[in-house]
């Protein structure tokens, strides 16, 4: 754990990519294969299962430090991270344990067999011999929400440097359905056959938001344009008469979408399609709201299948006849994709994402304006000559999203943020006018610059009306333009509406608070876009 | 009627008709120390310690100011006032107020650790203690200054060995000099930001010993900086001013650096936990040492800290004041101390 903690400290100290890669590569050279494997797992979101809930962890920390639970709770609101709060309030260590990362992870995994007292003793025992950073990491491993701000891309680059294996190769090897409990570093990284794991997906290629004018992309003839579908990105794999469905978060979701199961026999083995898991009926997509009813469900009822049927809106082909074709140009892959979808009947499960016929950028701009009506988020632009890359890379794929819906709202409540924004007021509740009353309708956390957050934090401190635990109500003075991607009625929200991806677009210093929008304005948006 | 009360202008002693650290202009102000949130412009008369006076004069210009020695008693209408070391910065004082056996202490900002530069904190027995709580949560616990300075010097040595410049931030009055005092000058030369060097000049003139420093100016060749250290104000980071130091490593010294979120937000390469305020254990120790039953919490985590003290059986009250504590180091704009520093830097 000492190596691991030192590597973490080095990562945490810098925002520079090269320094992060150096820290990781040095670490990978120092530690044994077991620790390497666990580190790769942790940095690719394969965390050990949570063995202790945070409520118990709080209670044990409170007991060991003699700090009352309420003040631990208040501290947590300031620190913005429970693992860190606990690491900071515990009394200084009495011992200095020096074990490997793997040792500690196995130590934690054993908790599953312990009763509550046993867990408590084991956790407090560990705390007694770890320093602040090590405790923090230990707590993170227990709570299962370990994040260090290193992308999988950087981790792969560092591992490539430490092992001498080429980066793109390595990225592919690290994908898929493995955990450190069922493989070894040697098998994962070095075994030669790429078919050893038939479910292994390819790394997704992710597009950047188009910031410049579309015209700056050059000749329209070089670009393919299609809808930016409003579903979930998915990769469907058919190999050895089996089908596997991966979501972009590298989660295997095959069981959640039984619609795709017929593909195992309907299309040839050795096929991998990149597309959108999209709710769809009678030749047209349904709203994202409909898909939301399925996202969290493990088991799917007949009724759900009927109410929220999905298709795969196909837009790329990565493997064809068992061959990795990612290096073919976009237009070549598209041709093969079209052939595949047309040749093999799938009862409509595979849909071909239509491409727009356009010769001027202006035509596309007009198409983009009407995207929302078609349950599309805008337009995707892909360079016809481009290979299928991996990760987020600028240049060949762009998302050109429709402008968000907006409403001017008044800040009503403020709460401190988490992580990087701890101790700053960053989480706000906004309201609209209903007569001379404000009614809260949404929260928003993002969209302001660090400087604006500093400024609003100072303002909140000086304009607090009342405190409710960590939440402060503030004077109705500040107007913000709230942007969001969608709106619907919701019985789960007090206000009766739920917004999709709300964020602060602008701080409207120019707008008097009386001129903020009203509940009627919100209702009008609901009528127009709500269902 | 208690001896001290709290009103819109500050901490008030009616019997003597004086204020302590008022935030609105008043006729007579007793000042604990020179930070901008405690010594403000516009009062008709100021009283502070002799050691605090030069900086206050420098910052507030032509004011009517008298000084006292630490421990010296001034009697105003029967009320005895005396100033005692607060250990926060050079010249900083706690103000003891006594009348007919009723004793109050207004501590301003203070810390218990002897930093070797400020007059060391002295506990004063009283019945009523007015305290800050800038770091009044159990997550804040400092390591001794010696260890922190050793870390800072190690970082400077490392940065120098890479042929880069180290930039270390701390606010201009207090923290900066404490850092200067602890730097290992065998590693290299020390350069200073203008706002800090202005303060250094004032302090040197009053006899404070600081290591040799060179003010950063346009005339200095940029090639002179690598290997050396620049001590700058927190507000200077992110300004065009830092560009001249090229690929520098930035270290921030502040109590806020305890928290990972604050470290990452600050955009510093290294965060060193060093504060001129009390941490949690020393706040509790200080209050205990006063023997006071009544505690008034002026700034920081006031609600939480006063609630905690009440649970310990004290009569603790949360006050709403305009003191800011060490906010200067987390807020880059809109803070009295930072405005001061930016103005000083802009003036060059």
Descriptive report:
The complex is a heterodimer of chains A (531) and B (348). Chain A is 36% helix and 24% strand. By secondary structure, chain A is of the alpha+beta class. Chain A folds into three domains: 2-143, DNA ligase i, domain 1 (Orthogonal Bundle); 205-401, D-amino Acid Aminotransferase, Chain A, domain 1 (2-Layer Sandwich), CATH 3.30.470; 405-529, OB fold (Dihydrolipoamide Acetyltransferase, E2P) (Beta Barrel). The mean pLDDT of chain A is 90. Chain B folds into two domains: 5-140 and 277-326, 4-Layer Sandwich (Metallo-beta-lactamase, Chain A), CATH 3.60.15; 145-272, Rossmann fold. Helix content of chain B is 24%, strand content 24%. Chain B contains eight helices and 19 strands. In chain B, the strands form three sheets. A seven-stranded mixed β-sheet of chain B has the order 7-8-9-10-11-18-19, covered by helices on one side. In chain B, strand 5, helix 1 (53-60) and strand 6 (65-68) form a beta-alpha-beta unit. In chain B, helix 4 packs across helix 8. Chain B is globular, with a radius of gyration of 20 Å. The chains are: A alpha+beta (531), B alpha/beta (348). The A-B interface holds A 12-15, 65, 67-68, 71-72, 74-75, 78-81, 84-85, 88-89, 136, 417-424, 450-451, 454-455, 457-458, 467 and B 137-141, 256, 258-265, 267, 269-270, 301, 303-304, 308, 311, 327, 330-335.
Biggest pleated sheet of chain A: 7 strands, mixed
Can you tell me the CATH class of the largest domain in chain A? Alpha Beta
Kindly give the count of domains of chain A. Answer: 3
CATH architecture term of the largest domain in chain B: 4-Layer Sandwich
Shape of chain A: globular
CATH H-level superfamily of the largest domain in chain B: Ribonuclease Z/Hydroxyacylglutathione hydrolase-like
CATH class category label of the largest domain in chain B = Alpha Beta
Strand content of chain A: 15-25%
Chain pair sharing the greatest interface: A-B, 35 and 29 residues
Classification by helices and strands of chain A = alpha+beta
Count, helices of chain B: 8
Q: How many β-strand stretches of chain A?
A: 22
Low-confidence segments of chain A, given as residue ranges, are: none
Mean pLDDT value of chain B: 91
Number of domains of chain B: 2
Query: Quaternary status of these chains?
Result: heterodimer
EC number (chain A): 6.5.1.1
Organism (chain A): Neolewinella litorea
InterPro entries (chain A): ATP-dep_DNA_ligase, ATP_dep_DNA_lig_pp_1105_fam, DNA_ligase_ATP-dep_C, DNA_ligase_ATP-dep_cent, DNA_ligase_ATP-dep_CS, DNA_ligase_ATP-dep_N, DNA_ligase_N_sf, NA-bd_OB-fold
Pfam families (chain A): DNA_ligase_A_C, DNA_ligase_A_M, DNA_ligase_A_N
């Amino acid at each position: 754990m000492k190596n691991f903690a030192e590597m973490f400290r080095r990562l945490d100290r810098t925002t520079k990519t090269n320094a992060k890669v150096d820290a990781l590569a040095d670490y990978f050279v120092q530690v044994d294969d077991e620790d390497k494997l666990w580190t790769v797992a942790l940095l690719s979101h394969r965390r050990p299962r949570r063995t202790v809930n945070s409520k118990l962890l709080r209670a044990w920390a409170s007991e060991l430090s003699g700090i009352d639970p309420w003040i631990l709770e208040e501290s947590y609101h300031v620190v913005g991270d429970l693992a860190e709060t606990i690491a900071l309030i515990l009394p200084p260590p009495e011992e200095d344990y020096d074990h490997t990362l793997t040792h500690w992870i196995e130590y934690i995994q054993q908790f599953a067999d312990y009763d509550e007292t046993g867990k408590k003793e084991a956790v407090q025992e560990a705390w007694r011999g770890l320093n602040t950073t090590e405790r923090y990491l230990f707590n993170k491993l227990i709570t299962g929400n370990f994040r260090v701000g290193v992308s999988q891309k950087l981790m792969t680059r560092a591992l490539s440097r430490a092992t001498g294996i080429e980066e793109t190769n390595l990225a592919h090897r690290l994908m898929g359905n493995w955990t450190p409990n069922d493989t070894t570093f040697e098998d994962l990284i070095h075994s030669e056959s790429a078919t050893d794991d038939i479910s292994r997906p390819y790394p997704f290629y992710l597009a950047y938001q188009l910031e410049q004018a579309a015209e700056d992309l050059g000749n329209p003839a070089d670009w393919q344009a299609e809808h930016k579908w409003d579903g979930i990105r998915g990769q469907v794999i058919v190999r050895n008469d089996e089908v596997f469905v991966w979501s972009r978060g590298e989660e295997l979701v095959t069981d959640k979408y039984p619609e795709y199961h017929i593909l195992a026999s309907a299309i040839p083995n050795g096929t991998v399609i990149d597309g959108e898991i999209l709710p769809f009926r009678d030749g047209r997509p349904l709203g994202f709201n409909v898909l939301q009813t399925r996202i969290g469900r493990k088991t799917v009822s007949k009724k759900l299948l009927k109410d929220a049927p999905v298709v795969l809106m196909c837009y790329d082909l990565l493997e064809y006849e068992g061959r990795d074709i990612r290096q073919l140009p976009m237009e070549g892959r598209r041709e093969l994709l079209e052939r595949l979808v047309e040749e093999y009947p799938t009862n409509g499960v595979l849909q071909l994402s239509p491409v727009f016929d356009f010769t001027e950028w202006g035509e596309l701009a007009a198409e983009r304006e009407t995207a929302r009506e078609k349950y599309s988020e805008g337009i995707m632009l892909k360079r016809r000559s481009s290979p299928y890359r991996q990760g987020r890379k600028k240049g060949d794929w762009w998302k050109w999203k429709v402008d968000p819906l907006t409403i001017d709202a008044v800040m009503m409540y403020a709460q401190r943020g988490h992580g990087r924004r701890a101790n700053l007021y960053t989480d706000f509740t906004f309201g609209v006018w209903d007569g001379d009353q404000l009614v809260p309708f949404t929260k928003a956390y993002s969209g302001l610059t660090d400087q604006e957050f500093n400024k609003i934090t100072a303002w909140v401190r000086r304009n607090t009306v009342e405190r409710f635990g960590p939440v402060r109500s503030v004077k109705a003075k500040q107007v913000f333009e709230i942007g969001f991607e969608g709106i619907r009625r919701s019985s789960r929200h007090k206000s009766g509406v739920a917004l999709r991806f709300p964020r602060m677009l602008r701080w409207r210093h120019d707008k008097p608070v009386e001129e903020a929008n009203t509940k009627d304005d919100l209702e009008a948006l609901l009528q127009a876009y709500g269902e | 009627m208690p001896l001290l009360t709290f009103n819109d202008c500050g901490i008030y002693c009616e019997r003597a008709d004086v204020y302590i650290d008022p935030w609105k202009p008043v006729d007579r102000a007793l000042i604990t120390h020179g930070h901008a949130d405690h010594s403000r412009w516009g009062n008709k008369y100021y009283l502070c310690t002799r050691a605090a006076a030069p900086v206050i004069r420098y910052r507030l210009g032509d004011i009517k100011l008298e000084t006292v020695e630490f421990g010296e008693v001034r009697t105003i209408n029967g009320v005895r006032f005396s100033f005692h070391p607060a250990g926060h910065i050079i010249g900083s004082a706690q103000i003891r107020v006594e009348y007919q056996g009723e004793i109050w202490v207004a501590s301003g900002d203070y810390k218990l650790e002897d930093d070797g530069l400020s007059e060391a904190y002295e506990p004063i027995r009283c019945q009523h203690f007015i305290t800050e709580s800038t770091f009044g949560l159990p997550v804040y616990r400092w390591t001794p200054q010696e260890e922190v300075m050793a870390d800072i010097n190690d970082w400077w040595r490392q940065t120098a060995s890479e042929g880069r410049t180290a930039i270390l931030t701390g606010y201009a009055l207090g923290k900066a000099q404490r850092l200067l005092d602890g730097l290992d000058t065998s590693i290299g030369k020390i350069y200073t930001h203008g706002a800090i060097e202005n303060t250094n000049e004032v302090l040197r003139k009053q006899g404070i010993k600081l290591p040799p420093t060179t003010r950063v100016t346009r005339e200095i060749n940029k090639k002179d900086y690598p290997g050396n250290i620049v001590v700058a104000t927190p507000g200077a980071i992110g300004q065009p001013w830092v560009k001249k130091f090229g690929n520098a490593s930035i270290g921030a010294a502040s109590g806020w650096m305890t928290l990972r979120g604050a470290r990452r937000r600050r955009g510093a390469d290294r965060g060193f936990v060093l504060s001129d305020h009390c941490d949690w254990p020393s706040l509790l120790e200080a209050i205990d040492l006063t023997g006071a039953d009544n505690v008034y919490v002026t700034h920081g985590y006031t609600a939480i800290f006063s609630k905690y003290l009440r649970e310990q059986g004290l009569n603790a009250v949360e006050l709403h004041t305009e003191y800011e504590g060490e906010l200067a180091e987390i807020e880059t704009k809109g803070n009295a101390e930072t405005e001061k520093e930016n103005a000083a830097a802009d003036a060059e």
